Amino acid sequence: MKKQQRFAYLLLSFLMLFAGSLAYGQQGQITGKVTEAGSGEGIPGASVLVKGTTRGTVTDLDGSFTISASAQEVLVFSFIGFETQEVTVGNRSVVNIGLSQSVQALNEIIVVGYGTQERKEITSAVTSVKSEGFNQGTVNDPRQLLQGKVAGLNIARPGGNPNSGFNVRLRGISSIGENAEPLIVIDGVIGGSLSTVDPNDIESMDVLKDGSAAAIYGTRGSAGVILVTTKSGRSGKTVVEYNGSVAAENVARTIKVMTAEEYLKIPNAVNLGSNTNWLEEVTRQGYSHVHNLSLAGGTPSTTYRASINSRNTEGVGVNSGFNQLNARLNLSQRALKNKALFTFNLSNTNVDRRFGQENAFRYAIITNPTTPVRSDRPEDRPFGGYRERDIFDWFNPVSIAEQNIDDRRENRLLASIRGEYSFTDNFRAAVFYASQRETDWRGQYSPKTAKFGGGFGRQGLATIENRERLNDLFEATVNYDQSLGKVNLALLGGYSYQEFFNQGNYTQAGNFLTDAFTYNNIGAALDFANGLATVSSFANSNRLVAFFGRANFNLEDTYLLSLSARYEGSSRFGANNKWGLFPAISAGVNIANLVSMPGVSAMKVRASYGRTGTQPGESYLSLLRFGRQGNFFYNGQFVPSYGPTSNPNPDLSWETKDEINGGLDFVILNNRLDGSIDYYTRVTTGMILPINVPVPPNLFPTTQLNIGEMVNSGLEVMVNYLAMQKSNFRWSTGVNFSTLRTNLRSLSSGDLSFGEVNYRSNFGSPGQNLTQLIRIQENGPLGQIWGPVFDGVNDNGSPKMKDLNGSGGYCNCNEDRAQLGTAYPTFNFGVNNSFSYKNFDLNFFFRGSVGHYLINSYRGFYENTEGTTVQNYNIVNTKYFDPRINKAEYNSSHVEKADFVVLDNATVGYTFKIGSGRAVSRVRTFLSVQNPFMFTGYTGVDPEVRYGDAESGNDPLAPGIERRATYFTTTITTLGLNVSF
Amino acid sequence: MKKYINIRYFLIGLGISYFASSCVDMEEEVFSQITAENFFKTDEEFISALGQAYSSLGGLGNHSGLWSINELASDEIVISTKGGDWFDGGVLLQLHQHEFLPDNPFFQNSWNFLFGGINTCNRLIFSFEKLDNPNSPAFIAELRSLRALYYYWAMDAFGNIPLVTSFTSTEAPDTKNRREIYNFILAELNETIPLLPTAKSGATYGRMTKWAALMIRMKLYLNAEVYTGTAQWALAAADAEEIINSGPYSLMPSYKDNFLVNNSGSTENILVYPYDKVFAGGFNWVMMTLHINSQATFNLTQQPWNGYQTVEEFYNSYIDPVKNPGVQGPVWKGLALEQSTGTRDGRLSNFLVGPQTRSDGSPLLDAGVEVFDATGRNGDPNGPPITFMPYLNEIWPQGLRQAGARIAKYEFERGGTNNMSNDFVIFRLSDVILSLAEARFRLGQTTQALTLVNQIRARAGNLTPFTTLTEENLLEERGREMYVEMTRRQDLIRFKKYGAAWWPFQGMNRPKRVHNPGSYLELFPIPAPQLLANPKLKQNPGYN
Predict the structure, then answer these.
(1) Residue B83: what pLDDT?
(2) Does the pTM exceed 0.90?
(3) How many angstroms away from the CA of A833 is the closest CA of chain B?
(4) String of DSSP letters for A106-139
(5) Are A209 and A224 in contact (CB under 8 A)?
(6) Quick one: pLDDT at residue A1?
(7) Which of A724, B300, B455, B506 is the most exposed place for a label (fewest CB within 10 A)?
């Protein structure tokens, strides 16, 4: 209640600022024709608007128009792909005008923080991808639209789980304290959820890469910013569009294991009498279909676009997939004699997920291939007739996939309203309010017959989980634009207030009389009576308040300067450090305007500096907190006991990233080649990490501190080339690549240190629980894969490790371990080729990463002939398999180069010729294949970069490990249809 | 119009004042957590604060903490690497072999357990001192003696450690030597013993009493030669006698009844940590020691981990007719292919050995049992029917899955969870009796000592009394009685046997490091993360 009052007050006080009126004079009828400047052909559908009014029209099929306007008024002619022109009516009654094609690379509109700019004005590292440049095929996640398209932006989803998200990292990683992804801003809503946006509804995605571009987002800008702009309606003809597709999804890559025949040749093999291909048993061909219907249109004063998107997807894993329904309405209305503009966006998404069981893949890989799927042995009756074996870490994969239920439902609601008022031509002010509600529900059940998932041991086990995340944003901005002689000045000032609230609850209980209820009647669990059920709930909140401003100076599009700053406070910071300042400066010179160079339309050199921050990943880290610490036996009964769970740190502050960026934007060869080159160095300091502190005097063994320093640098190149343009054939190609170098300069702050050297993560059970895999080292690169060096086989069959320190034998200590690779790629690239011939279009897109390594966990545990391994499991059988090795012991031979090139997407389309005057204006069909092949020497499931994994608690300091429950990768073939009316 | 403007200004003014007050407010709003501001308001909250000093003790029954380092470094317990399982970076082997590395995470876990407890006591003493509550003096005495227990354990394991008694000090402490810590503990106990409750009742169950505090002092004196260089046998004997003669404790008729699932009725246990599968989890020996398939024997909710085993030689000290004379009868020995004859010490209930069955009595089978390979070394002689054999083929790399007698000292609950409900025995009367015997023996009062030892032997069942007492048979008797009660490492050091070679049986690879009495290895190293966190700390000698 309190919060709503607060917002109401704010709205009121800002709305009071709006008042004003305007008068205008006598009108007459004006006619004319809009043509293409070169050919003189009429342009149908061009917009003609009387400047500063709601009066406007659209040209007809010949390009002709009629409009009423008075002599002193100005007509604005515009059409996509052409330069906009303004003409004062004067005493004419006929106005004919030729529009020239715009050089898109210069004039395309780029969305930046709190505004837009033309590309030629940009002085920082910003990449804009429009819908026509997005990835095609079956794309369910907006992130995937950008995969491989932006130099320096790495987007990866290891494995092909349709329910798991993509990991996004810009310019390596920006923080080692937080596993941070770029900030998402959807139509101005900071921290908007990408699930509120269907990929079909996105107009453009703009990536703010350097510190100067992101600094206006302050404490959340360090990992970069992705600005998502959704499609909106245009005045003129109503457009109805339908996009539909059906797709088939198949397993692409798994890991090679032995067939029953191969397995039985290994000494100690146990023949259980069957021949099962377990990988096939837990997978299937998945079918999906996507439907998208949108209506868009409007008048000069009202525009709208409404869309509805439905996605039904089956994963290749048995019982995995989702159904999603999204609806969106974007509406804008001019009012108060055109001086006010209201924009209203509303979006709702519902997703029903069948989450499937990634562990079915894990056990499918290692299950003895002679094991039958089902059996009628009496000892398998308690397991529902699935063949089980009483062995540690042995579970029937089909039972896992078929018996355990993991259902989730997600709801996302995002509503925003923006009111803008133009006081004069130069001065406007706006208020913006947005509210996002995200709710997640999860229900799981493991029946009494499921050996995996706890159902067998707990006599049926049900779990219900609810989460709710609220995000309320209020912003007010003022803009002032002025020409001072030759200098165009654009000023922005603003205030931002944002509140987040999260809550959730969790209930887990077992011991049911029957499996009939699944998770729907958890109160029937006897665990409640026995005190063995688990119930918990939580709530937390945080708040961000900021003042920000920006000044842009533009001297005849030749000399450009931009200054910005955000002064931001976060409730998550310690009491002594609530507020931070994040300034930025950037400048550019367009040399092409100073020196005449043949064929060069633009040659802009730019440089920038910007400071951004990262706020702590959770609330309350700076406070001394107490938590439940078991119970205490007091006077014959147990009473709850509470103790400290954190140390206070009133100095806790944001992580600071200072970044300098130098760049060159160019449009040469008569507009056929355009591109940009950027080089950056970013220094992150004060990273928030839990550091060991002495107890006593501290209450808790670790304190959250700001420590250390990290440097990332890299080169990014993006080039688009129109290779050929004939009357009915067009070929364009685009290449982008980026390099990355990281150095963790320091992990200390004063006396306190994370340790000059530190080891993270572990390999896991069985037997390699404390086998550390990743080294963190001051003055070394991030993500060092670490371990003993394989040096042949000992007589007893155990892997021989190299004696690196010359002590006369391998010591099983750090002196005899070495860096075996790095987890981060040094080079990422994407290559796109588009062709069109008559009505056909063809597009294929390759993507790759080079220089990174992965620890292949499957091989580290199961590629050996150790007696119990062979008896209990199937044997991983890659090119590295050496039957002499009979001991699972992690070493350099399990660390593989994971360089890869993948054909992400190949699409061929055909657009039908439709005569004019038909109801249907455009029909296109396409066939698209995603991931049909991948070139890599890696023998694991997926050579994609791993930024962290659930087994290591998503620790950003422990990347580069392919764990054993990796969902197989998939190939998707999509047949689609686009129709416009 | 004028009125309109006034309202407008009023609203703008209101907006600005509201803005200035609340819209730049950066205080955190807390919902589901407790901060210093919203705690310690009621009596219940005070009691629950006191409770944390005790609930810290819940770390005793886990894998990888203070109990583990003490037992794994002694000759009682071993965790062999089984197939691929339980290698875990070699840290377990290192403990067996006395290759103590400062970055072994078990040391850090133990340190956090000990100093977490000390710190909680300091904090609560500080809180109660500030409070004018009638309960405060009693609570403070109780907390000081509990703190002395933590310090005693820390001094025993790590020797030279920081000494902090003030909660408000913010300076990182430096290292004090073992003698300074010893003197501190002694002084604290001397002051608090007269203030502590003496009754054995529900109100003192699981809490510090005069007797528990006396027992800490008795142990200080018993080991005084190791700790300070000066023996204090007579003082140890005096404290032991006071507990035996004046304390409200008596030996239970049956040894194993001290360790039942419901053992709160024991007349013998002096200090326990009350575990409970519902209220106070964390006692998971059932997981640590039992075979994966033992789930079906005890109908457990989870699969055990097949880790902790008894060293064969130690097990043999129970059944050896010469070392442990008594009633001879069938016992499991060696490969456990069939029963052989040996002493049927009543305390063999400490072990789970021999063929295992499902809960319905049918044989328990291990589908993953080792088959014989060409070397003959890896095969399990008992085959798929699970038989826990006292025999240990090797500790690395191919330890047999069924090897080793399992720790069955605490009764396993049928249908139990991974959390056992038995109360963990920290101090017990028979330890006092054996300590008194030892002190008398050291003082040359052998006859009295022999009587006391035979009192323990008589209670054990099926044993004949010793006729003479030697250092060897006294240490062995202590071993049999006090198995896995976290006294063995201390006893071996005191009897100068800690550096001896053990596991000398055939096929045992990776021999233990042998060292002399007084070796630096009798202290564990200060954990590496502690040295990083506090540069004023000094590593123990020998570990640099």
Answers:
(1) 73
(2) no
(3) 50
(4) HH-EEEETTEEEEGGG--S-EEEEEGGGS--SS-
(5) yes
(6) 42
(7) B506
CA angle B512, B514, B515 (to 5 degrees): 140
Residue A573, SS3? coil
Instruction: For residue B300, give the nearest of A457, A510, A627 by CB distance.
Output: A457
The token pair at A11 is 């709205």
Q: How would you list the strands of the sheet with A189-190, edge to edge?
A: A126-130, A202-208, A225-230, A183-186, A189-190
Residue A151 is given by DSSP the state T
**What tokens were used for B187?**
């002084």
Q: Which of residues 281-300 of B touch A (CB under 8 A)?
A: 281-282, 292-293, 295-296, 300
Give the residue from chain A lying closest to B533, CA to CA.
A693
pLDDT for the residue A5:
55
Radius of gyration over every alpha carbon of chain A, rounded to an integer in angstroms: 31
pLDDT tens per residue, range A26-55: 678 888 888 877 667 777 778 888 887 777
Q: Whole-angstrom Cα distance, residue A269 to residue A282?
A: 23
CA dihedral B281, B286, B288, B290 (to 10 degrees): -160
Tokens of B435: 């300590």
Q: Which amino acid is residue A328, in one-letter code?
A: R
The single residue listed with the structure tokens 């669990």 is: A525
A111 - beta bridge partners?
Answer: A116
- Check residue A269 and report its DSSP letter: -
Q: Of A200, A232, A225, which Cα lies nearest the Cα of A131?
A: A200
- Picking from A431, A258, A439, A462, the residue whose alpha carbon sits closest to that of residue A342 is A431
Q: What is the CA radius of gyration of chain B?
A: 27
- Least confident range from A59-68, A145-154, A393-402: namely A59-68
Please report, as a single letter, which amino acid is at residue B355. Answer: P
Report the relative pairing of strands B424-428 and B269-273 from DSSP bridges: antiparallel
Around Cβ A966, how many Cβ atoms within 10 Å? Answer: 26
Query: Is A592's pLDDT higher than 50?
Result: yes
CA distance linking residue A844 with residue A975, whole number of Å: 16
Query: A538 and A523 in contact (C-beta within 8 Å)?
Result: no
For B85, the closest of A624, A641, A767 (CB atoms) is A767
- How many secondary structure helices (H) and strands (E) does chain A include? 11, 53
pLDDT of B66 above 60: yes
- In chain B, the residue whose alpha carbon lies closest to the alpha carbon of A752 is B533
Predicted confidence (pLDDT) per residue in A331-354, tens digit: 999 998 889 999 999 999 999 999
How far is Cα of residue A140 from the mean position of the Cα atoms in its chain? Answer: 12
Question: CB neighbours (10 Å) of residue A275?
Answer: 14
Interface test with A, best of B12, B35, B44, B87 (most A CBs within 10 A): B87
Which DSSP string do the residues of A61-87 spell out, in sequence order?
TTSEEEEEE-TT-EEEEE-TTB--EEE
* Chains A–B, number of C-beta pairs less than 8 Å apart: 286
Pairing of strands A602-614, A534-555: unpaired
Interacting residues of B438 by C-beta distance below 8 A, sequence separation 6+: B222, B449, B474, B478
Contacts of A523 (CB under 8 A, 6+ apart): none
Question: CA A795 to CA A252: how far, in whole Å?
Answer: 39
Minimum mean pLDDT range among A570-574, A830-834, B35-39, B258-262: B35-39
Read off the amino acid at residue A912. Answer: F
In a 13 Å sphere around the CA of A649, the CA atoms on its Cβ side amount to: 26
CB A495 within 8 A of CB A482: no
Contact A118, A106 (CB under 8 A): yes
Helix (H) or strand (E) holding B112: helix B105-130
Asked if the Cβ–Cβ distance from A697 to B16 is below 8 Å, we say no
Report the C-alpha gap between A504 and A361 in whole angstroms.
30
Q: Which uninterrupted H or E stretch holds B532?
A: helix B528-533
Q: Which residue of B has its CA nearest to A755?
A: B532
List helix spans (H) across A294-423. 358-366, 397-403
Helix (H) or strand (E) holding A687: strand A673-692
